[in-house]
Prior knowledge:
Blueprint: H1 15-21, E1 30-34, E2 37-43, E3 49-55, H2 62-75, E4 84-90, E5 93-99, H3 106-111, H4 120-140, E6 146-147, E7 156-158, E8 164-166, E9 173-174, E10 181-182, H5 194-199, E11 201-202, H6 204-220, H7 228-231, H8 234-237, H9 248-261, H10 272-279
Helix pairs in contact: 4-6, 4-10, 6-9
Catalytic activity: L-threonyl-[protein] + ATP = O-phospho-L-threonyl-[protein] + ADP + H(+); L-seryl-[protein] + ATP = O-phospho-L-seryl-[protein] + ADP + H(+)
Organism: Punica granatum
EC number: 2.7.11.1
Amino acid sequence: xxxxxxxxxxxxxxxxxxxxxxxxxxxxxxxxxxxxxxxxxxxxxxxxxxxxxxxxxxxxxxxxxxxxxxxxxxxxxxxxxxxxxxxxxxxxxxxxxxxxxxxxxxxxxxxxxxxxxxxxxxxxxxxxxxxxxxxxxxxxxxxxxxxxxxxxxxxxxxxxxxxxxxxxxxxxxxxxxxxxxxxxxxxxxxxxxxxxxxxxxxxxxxxxxxxxxxxxxxxxxxxxxxxxxxxxxxxxxxxxxxxxxxxxxxxxxxxxxxxxxxxxxxxxxxxxxxxxxxxxxxxxxxxx
Length: 288
């Protein structure tokens, strides 16, 4: 368990620094609002652009998730994971300071009516980058596997050149043994693995299931995607806005990976390392 003393002093900002960077948390700087609170764009004195996430005072997610996010992201340094620059606290306000990612979220690019249709090569690249971020959390992170627990397109930010960045680690938890653990059911409906939704059982395969749903959404451009893979041919799965401008082999790789990731039995789902190799065409089968 992380105590307040464990929060890294080297990552601490003064409240006045963040206040100044965001023009006193002005409406003009507001990027968005969610259950956790508000996100503001800002600029530090050295010119670095930031996104400051201010947790609502009465947020149900509370200080525990604030600490979790700081602790997890201080270990998770990877090109497909949003970098946490630091944090500050003032009375009952908790602020997380991230690098600013300029190109909105994958959710916006896939589902917002104002977004241009996301080109196929970008969808394929985002699938691989997201898989690599999850592989890092599950298999390569110093300190042991981390389960994200809230993988969905709105938690995948996109850079100016469409590199995906995993964000929002408030629900993340360390995996301390090989055994699945039971926990309170948190996360977002539609992305919850059956064993998690039914009885709160969490493992790294919980994230794999959610990634499978994201793959289906990347392929189809549809928000509700769980049952698509069972009922449709490959050419029917594809986002109709794409026309014929997609790569048939890459479509096969993504749909085959999705099919394996959303298996109802978690033991039959592949690891994220296997998923990356398969999506990149370096392996032609999953071991499970």
